[in-house]
Amino acid sequence: MDFQLLPEQKEIIDLVDNLGRKEFAPKAARWDQNHEYPWENAYLLRDLGLLGMTIPKEYGGQGRPLIDAVLATETAAKYCGATARILVETNMGALGCIMAYGTEEQRKVVAERILKDADKPAIGMTEPDAGTALTELKTRAEKKGNKYVLNGTKHWITGGGLAITNLIFARFIEDGKDLGIGGILVDKGTPGFTFGKVEQAMGLRGIPETELIFEDCEVPASNVVVHGDGNESFKNLMNGYNAQRVGASAVALGLAQGAHNLAVDWMLKRQTFGRLLAEYQGLQWMMADAEIKIECARLLIYRAACNARHLPNNVMLPHMKEASMAKAFGSHAMFEVVSESLQMFGAYGYSQDMPIERMLRDVRMFQIGGGTTQAQMNMIARAVFSRKFTYRQDPADTTKTGSK
Ligand SMILES: Cc1cc2nc3c(=O)[nH]c(=O)nc-3n(C[C@H](O)[C@H](O)[C@H](O)COP(=O)(O)OP(=O)(O)OC[C@H]3O[C@@H](n4cnc5c(N)ncnc54)[C@H](O)[C@@H]3O)c2cc1C
């Protein structure tokens, strides 16, 4: 076992850190306040080969391991959470499902859109009545000849309205029969595919969360990524999505590290009663506690990323329990770290003049999006207890029937 970074991994971190200090940090408030997508940053990341760095070489990417994308994401998040999420979704998320299970043509097209146009694929799972209980989703993809006709509504879809590539989870219906949940690609601009409400979100406002509406939206059968096939197809889709949980945790980690660094600097400048804040033991212990939480989260996240095994087509799949532990612990503990960091600033930290109030709003998201903390705890508990006894069939237990 070796906890050292490789020289090329240090180079990635240095590259993104430099970019973060010079380009991301000065503009982070702008994307947040204007609800503006950080296209400038997306193009910079694309030009440096960081978007889609996990895409295999045969599709124009660098075929880098998941851990490298995690390191880039964590580093970017120290300066701008929204920008870091672009790295997650151009290296993990929908991309993982498409690269693992999609056709050769789909992989080629989606990879090219990311690498050339900085497209950030969207993944449409959640519906107004199906969030954690994702197996209750109602969107239908009904087969008509060599097409599928989609009807339904998704909400809270990250990048909805911007993304060209949209991977939509739907029930596959053939000859009136429900075959189960599968995934199908719907390109922006397809007739019958429109956008509804854009959420007024608490944080990460540089990327919109949007309602996707499908009304008799026809797509060719060649757009099917995973055909609905009972529980198996749903399991495959969720497996492909597992890396996203690790990436999301890396954003939370970077935000916490960034906030912690700001607090340390502040405490070495700010004085009360003629003493630096850094001299008070009570505050030192709060910072020591934060340091431990950051390192624990980092170890869980890096381990989940490093232990990722290969799905079809070399897509890296983290172990479900390891990914869930990284996300459950990481998102909660990193929220605490950012909150305690803000505390060091007193009223200054509560003002929009300081980046730390934005970081606190941003980091809160990771206990919800990409599967809530409770959903992760359910999955971890299942892994713990499934070895000891067989679960009773409980229709309300979404962890058994499948949840985020
Ligand atoms: C910023 C943001 C971005 C998002 N991006 C996307 C996206 O790109 N694509 C997408 O498809 N979705 C996205 N989502 C949606 C997100 O995945 C869902 O919000 C999440 O899965 C929870 O679903 P819900 O909001 O319907 O809550 P619910 O499922 O209604 O849950 C409500 C509460 O009950 C708890 N709960 C529910 N069931 C159980 C249970 N069985 N045991 C214990 N506790 C339980 C939950 O943990 C939660 O605290 C995003 C959400 C946010 C906030």
Describe this entry's structure for a reader.
The protein has 404 residues and is an alpha+beta fold. The chain has 3 domains: 7-120, Orthogonal Bundle (Butyryl-Coa Dehydrogenase, subunit A, domain 1); 123-231, Butyryl-CoA Dehydrogenase, subunit A, domain 2 (Beta Barrel), CATH 2.40.110; 241-401, Butyryl-CoA Dehydrogenase, subunit A, domain 3 (Up-down Bundle), CATH 1.20.140.10. 49% of the residues lie in helices and 17% in strands. It is built from 12 helices and 12 strands. The chain has helices at residues 7-34, 39-47, 66-77, 81-89, 94-101, 104-117, 230-267, 281-306, 320-344, 355-364, 373-385, 398-401, and strands at 122-124, 140-144, 147-158, 166-174, 177-185, 193-198, 209-220, 224-226, 271-272, 275-276, 309-310, 316-317. The strands form 3 sheets. Strands 1, 2, 3, 4, 5, 6, 7 and 8 form an 8-stranded mixed beta sheet that branches. A hairpin with a 2-residue loop joins β4 (166-174) and β5 (177-185). α7 packs antiparallel against α10 (355-364) and α9 crosses α11 (373-385). The protein is globular and about 80 Å long. The two termini are 32 Å apart. Residues 395-401 have low confidence and may be disordered. Flavin-adenine dinucleotide (FAD) is lined by residues 123-126, 131-132, 156-158, 201, 204, 209, 365, 368-369, 371-372, 374-375, 378, 398, 404.
Helix and strand content put the structural class at alpha+beta
The major pleated sheet works out as:
8 strands, mixed
Taking pLDDT < 50 over at least 5 consecutive residues as the criterion, the unreliable ranges are: 395-401
Strand content: 15-25%
Which cofactor or ligand species appear?
flavin-adenine dinucleotide
What is the H/E string? HHHHHHEEEEEEEEHEEHEEHHHH
- CA distance, first residue to last residue: 32 Å
According to CATH, the homologous superfamily of the largest domain is Butyryl-CoA Dehydrogenase, subunit A, domain 3
Q: Give the overall silhouette.
A: globular
* Rg on CA atoms, Å: 21 Å
Q: Average pLDDT, to the nearest integer?
A: 94
Which CATH architecture of the largest domain is right? Up-down Bundle
CATH topology of the largest domain: Butyryl-CoA Dehydrogenase, subunit A, domain 3
Helix proportion of residues, in percent? 40-55%
Tell me the number of strands: 12
Number of helices: 12
Number of domains: 3
